[in-house]
């Protein structure tokens, strides 16, 4: 599902169970998926911090695609 959302140029909204703000709902503009031996992650722009971050797929809960603002 997440890969399809990336291809359709959608933002993702999800609860992230990692980082300094565990359990916080976040929105991000994905830039790509990275395969990693420590766990696959999505690199993207966090709308809260307004910087590029990596979000591990295993720590993302309740992810939903949302339309990007125009």
Could you write a compact summary of the structure shown?
The protein has one helix spanning 2-7; strands spanning 11-16, 24-34, 41-46, 52-56, 60-66. The protein is built from 1 helix and 5 strands; from the N terminus they run H-E-E-E-E-E.
Please give the structural blueprint.
Blueprint lengths: L1 H6 L3 E6 L7 E11 L6 E6 L5 E5 L3 E7 L4
Antiparallel strand pairs: 1-2, 1-5, 2-3, 3-4
Describe the structure.
The protein is mainly beta and 70 residues long. Helix content is 9%, strand content 50%. The N and C termini lie far apart (23 Å). Strands 4-3-2-1-5 form a 5-stranded antiparallel sheet. The protein is globular, with a radius of gyration of 11 Å. The longest helix has 6 residues, at 2-7. It has one helix at residues 2-7, and strands at residues 11-16, 24-34, 41-46, 52-56, 60-66.
Uncertain stretches: none
Distance between the termini: 23 Å
Query: Percent range for helical residues?
Result: under 10%
CA radius of gyration: 11 Å
Mean of all residue-level pLDDT scores: 87
Helix/strand order: HEEEEE
Notable features of this structure?
1 helix; five-stranded antiparallel β-sheet; 70 residues
């Amino acid at each position: 599902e997440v890969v399809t959302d990336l291809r359709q140029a959608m933002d993702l909204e999800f609860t992230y169970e990692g980082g300094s703000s565990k359990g916080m709902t976040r929105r991000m503009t994905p830039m790509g998926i990275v395969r990693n031996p420590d766990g696959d992650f999505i690199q993207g722009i966090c709308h809260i911090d307004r910087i590029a971050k990596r979000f591990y797929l295993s720590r993302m809960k309740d992810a939903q695609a949302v339309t990007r603002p125009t």
